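step: validate -> pass
step: tokenize input -> pass
step: predict -> running
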Amino acid sequence: MRALFYKNQKFEEGQNWVIEGEDLHHLSNVVRVETKETILFLNGLGDKAFFLVEEISKKKIEGVIQKVEQVNKKNISYEIAVGLIKKNDFDLVVKQAVEMGVSKIYPLMTKFSQDYPLNEERLERVIKSAIEQSNNPFNLEISKATTLEEMNWNIYSEIYLAHNAESFEAKAPEMREQINKKILIVLGPEGGFAEGEVNFVLEQPETRLVAFQTEIMRTTTAVPYCLGFVSSSVDRL
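step: predict -> pass
step: emit ->
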């Protein structure tokens, strides 16, 4: 369904609404929305509002919210800590994270990572686009760039470190049944983690190594690959 993202905005049934600005341009000139069409409004808090288009003009689209639904969060949440990569590639990781329902990303400053200031406005635009495309009712939080030492490792039920199987023994994740899991997946930048960084992560509580018998993957490939592997294993419980 066509969707618009209004971050943290509260919706009410029967509420009149006006769409202007960039959203108006997109709906009118790109999507070519029509009257009597329904558009999904999302606020990143789990609310889904169904907006009926009643009037369209060059300056605005007017209509009414007909229904509001609340989506409950799943009892398993996923977060990613990933070595900072090139800007366009990091944008792709953010899009993938939204589409796969990740709740938070930690950009990691490591030995082989990129080093640049995060552009919050740019990332907000990427998140908005991904939410509208995927219809994900929950927002993605992006932490400030951090180091492995600054991470709070104790808040997670399970931590999975994705790393090249050539240097370390491959271990399949040992899944345990638990209500309200908070899971962290840790991935390196292009070039991977240094050996000392790998050892540091493996020393953290509830951490296990996930090593795949594959060729070396780019970070943009490894993120959805690892997320799919871990989530499919956990969701079977």
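step: describe -> The chain is about 25% helix and 25% strand.
step: cleanup -> pass
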